[in-house]
Sequence to fold (257 residues):
Amino acid sequence: MFSKIEIFDMARGLLGHSAARQSVIAQNMANADTPGFRARDMAAFSDSYRVAEPDLRPTRPGHIMGGGDATAPARLHDSPGRSAPNGNTVSLENEMIRALDVSRQHEMALSVYRSSLNILRSSLGRQ
Amino acid sequence: MNDFARASVISASGMQAQADRLRHVSENIANADTPGYHRKTVSFQSVVERGRASGEVTSGPVRLDQSALAQIYDPGHPMADETGHYAGSNVDLVIEIADAREAQRSYDANLKLFDQSRQMSRALLELLRR
Fold:
């Protein structure tokens, strides 16, 4: 019953998105000095959340579905950046900004989740 | 493996690779005055597991810098040839220090991200309390 409440779904989707994005950023950071490595990033949550909702139904095995559920992994794309002489496009500064963005996003999702939980709890008459 | 654990493992591999690089830099600096020493360089490469990149990084094989050795004039040196020169090392301290700085910077960045992953997963577990 409670699993279908939209705001919980959305908060969970945002949590999953920020966790996945964190690991993409970790990959970029770890490979900041690997020759020929191209920095990657995930699509923003606002773009991937609605897209993931299934409007079309697969009726044959050959049909390709756009997503599935809200926590489906967003596609990775090259993030633009100047490349170093060895072909590496990671910029530590950009990655720092992204990491900050991710932690802010994660915190927001947690707050939304927690306060929704509090509302549910008080509607049950408990503190 | 969940995303936070994966992110931590990847950050740790980055730190490991940078520490390895720093070790070679210190080896070079320690041998800056060793006659005939070629400076060691180490390159980074992505780890491939089961045919696809796992996102981790590792330091590649050690290579020797083949640029010419410095010729040092010291007729009293036991290795000096008839012109009074002997081959020193090709270590340039300025390059090594710059390399060490860069390794430290990358190490710090990885450490910071490791810490952030830890904090994020801890905040997630905080939800379970109460």
Chain A has a mean pLDDT of 79. Chain A touches chain B at residues 15-16, 18-20, 22-27, 29-35, 37, 92, 95-96, 99, 102-103, 106-107, 110, 113-114, 117 (CB under 8 Å). Chain A has three helices and two strands. The first strand of chain A starts at residue 40 and ends at 42.
